[in-house]
Amino acid sequence: MPALDYPSHLVEDWQLRDGTPVRIRPILADDLEMHTAFVAGLSSETAYHRLLSPRKPQPDELWRWTHIDYDHELALIATTEVDGMEQQMGVVRYVRGDTPETVHIAEFAVVIADAWQRHGLAARLMRKLIDAAAQAGVKQLADITLYDNIAMLALARKLGFRLRRDAGNPNVTRLRLTLDPAPD
Predict the structure, then answer these.
(1) Using CA atoms, how far apart are residues 8 and 11, in angstroms rounded to an integer?
(2) Where are the domains of the chain?
(3) CATH class of residue range 8-178
(4) What is the pLDDT of residues 148-178, one digit of tens each?
(5) Mean pLDDT, the chain, whole residue set
(6) Cβ count near 158 (within 10 Å)
(7) Closest CA to 72 of 46, 102, 42
(8) Which one of 83, 89, 154, 158 has the lowest number of neighbouring Cβ atoms within 10 Å?
């Protein structure tokens, strides 16, 4: 059962180029089991690029990633039906800063299950996240990625992010996107 503040206006049905039906929607607390299976199914390379380390997310992190305070953050998942069961294909999220100075800046993340990469899903999810963030008053999305995460760097460029190698850590590239204010 969605929370009272569940942003149902963000639910969208879409199709991959090959006709696979996709539902994009905000994550729910009830998605914990599906999200846990999604994270467990990521290849070590995909997981490493997402977490910037070989560590495995702990149960409390997975719980936190599915129990969203929609005023402060948003996670959109893409799902499809496989053998009669809903399966998560990918996720994008943003989390706003905690202080008055950073409340309009949000860190973001994106990860797509290996089987669903290179189908346009990351771009579709990111565009939807960017639009939702702008509507929520976020003025800037920012994050870091590894310098060799070619797919993420290409996606960021395609979406208009500014990329800059981190002077303090040459293994990291900083990504920033200034958002257009949402129309009134």
Answers:
(1) 6
(2) 8-178
(3) alpha beta
(4) 889 999 999 999 999 999 888 888 899 999 9
(5) 90
(6) 12
(7) 102
(8) 83
